[in-house]
């Protein structure tokens, strides 16, 4: 195929045209660690943080769903929303930082056509689903809160 760059690896195809972009040394076909560039490390770190915080938010939401006490459920939901928002901010920053910084170094790229791979689209999909999860969690929390308040007022 040629040459591909990701957040964690760059791969050189068997018949990659030389010289390789960004002054990468041609060590032969195969995959190697990502280039030592700050924006790639930052984007990769943000993606890892987003993954970990999203997993934590999912766990907190699950614990909140299993809890029958409304006050405890509200606390877990509220913390989960904050953690999901942090995850959303991290993934959005990574999705913006990478292409902006990549575009800034295109003059060293010695190629005329560049394309983002499928993983970039998956990143945007994750951001959309995270946003939806935050909205749905807020809506669910409010419906639980309304039900709880109605029960208290009606039962008093």
TrEMBL record:
Which keywords appear in this protein's UniProt record, sorted alphabetically? Cell junction, Membrane, Transmembrane, Transmembrane helix
Q: Which GO terms describe its biological process?
A: cell-cell adhesion
The Gene Ontology CC terms held by the record are:
cell-cell junction; membrane
Transmembrane domains' residue ranges: 42-65, 77-98, 118-139
Q: According to its record, how does it sit in the membrane? A: Multi-pass membrane protein
Q: Which domain of life is it from?
A: Eukaryota
Q: Where in the cell is it found?
A: Cell junction; Membrane
Q: List the Pfam families.
A: PMP22_Claudin
Q: Does the keyword Methyltransferase apply?
A: no
**The keyword Transmembrane helix appears for this protein:** yes
Q: What is its main location?
A: other
Similarity comment: Belongs to the TMEM47 family.
What's the name of the protein? Transmembrane protein 47
Q: Which gene encodes it?
A: tmem47
